[in-house]
Write a structure and sequence with these properties.
globular; 55% helix; 2 strands; two-stranded antiparallel sheet; 8 helices
Length: 153
C-alpha cells in the first residue's frame, strides 16, 4: 500500500531523528500506522486503509530533529508548526489525496485549531496521541518493523 513511501530516501532518513523517548520518527510513524489499522478494525470503522496507512506514515514527515534548535529552525513551537511542514514535504515527493492531506495537516488537533475532517484523520490523530504517550513514558521502545503486505503495493 505504500512501497513508494517506505522505499524513499527521506522516509529512511527519519531513522536519524528521535521523536519521543528513544524512539525514532521512522519507528513512531510505523507504530502509528499499525495502531491506526488496529483501532479502525477493533472499532469496526469503515475507512480507506490505503489512505489511513499512507497518511499515518507521512504525518510526521518534517525531516529534522526537533530536539536540536539551530539558527534557521529554533523548533520552539514544533507541535504547532510541524503538520504544515510535514504536508509541504510530503506533497513535494508523493501524490496525496485530500484525505491523506487532511491526516497530515490535522493530526495535532487540538493544538491545531481545525479538527480532523475525515474518519481516517480522526483515527490517526487518536493513534498518534496513544503511541506518543507510550513512547514518552518509555513503554514503547526501539524500532518498528515494516509489515510485508505494505511493501508490495
Amino acid at each position: 500500500m505504500a512501497p513508494d513511501i517506505l522505499g524513499s530516501h527521506n522516509f529512511k532518513r527519519m531513522k536519524e531523528y528521535i521523536q519521543h523517548g528513544d524512539v525514532t520518527v521512522n519507528a513512531h510513524v510505523l507504530r502509528v500506522a499499525r495502531c491506526s489499522i488496529a483501532l479502525s478494525e477493533y472499532l469496526h470503522i469503515s475507512c480507506s486503509k490505503r489512505e489511513l496507512i499512507r497518511g499515518a506514515l507521512l504525518h510526521d514527515y518534517f525531516l529534522y530533529d526537533w530536539h536540536v534548535p539551530d539558527a534557521k529552525n529554533p523548533h520552539r513551537l514544533h507541535g504547532f508548526y510541524h503538520p504544515g511542514l510535514a504536508l509541504r514535504n510530503a506533497a513535494k515527493e508523493y501524490p496525496l489525496t485530500v484525505r491523506e492531506q487532511n491526516i497530515i495537516k490535522r493530526h495535532m488537533w487540538p493544538l491545531t485549531m481545525v479538527p480532523p475532517g475525515c474518519r481516517e484523520a480522526w483515527i490517526v490523530t487518536a493513534a498518534d496521541k496513544w503511541c506518543s504517550l507510550l513512547e514518552t513514558l518509555y513503554i514503547y521502545r526501539g524500532h518498528g518493523a515494516v509489515p510485508a503486505k505494505w511493501r508490495s503495493g
